[in-house]
Amino acid sequence: MINLYNIDCMKFMADKPDKYYDLAIVDPPYGIGIGGQVGSNKAQWTKYENKEWDTLPPDDKYFIKMKRISKNQIIWGANYFSVFPSRCFLVWDKMIGDNNFSMAELAYTSFNTPSKIFKHYHG
């Protein structure tokens, strides 16, 4: 069964016991201030309201709480903030070539295995 909650994640995590979840897979805000304005056609950006959700990355408390309530973690956006040391980073090679976008995304994992590369076209 899957349950969805519309709640502040910090409040949600505060109520969970240690190691409650087997795996946390998250993609938190990177703090790069894009606010929904992505894509190559800047003329279309005017259709979007300015968003504040991506102005700051999560603070250390977020990562510490998440690590406390989960046995393992996969945290996308590891190239935008340092989390914890890891032996197994995931690398998503977007196969998009050299342009204004990131050619790859990094994910921190808590797994004790060699790093992995996943190649998938991001078009």
TrEMBL record:
PROSITE patterns: N6_MTASE. InterPro entries: DNA_methylase_N6_adenine_CS, SAM-dependent_MTases_sf. SUPFAM superfamilies: S-adenosyl-L-methionine-dependent methyltransferases (SSF53335). One of its GO terms (molecular function) is methyltransferase activity. Signal peptide: none annotated. One of its GO terms (biological process) is methylation. This is DNA methylase N-4/N-6 domain-containing protein. The lineage of its organism: unclassified sequences, metagenomes, ecological metagenomes.
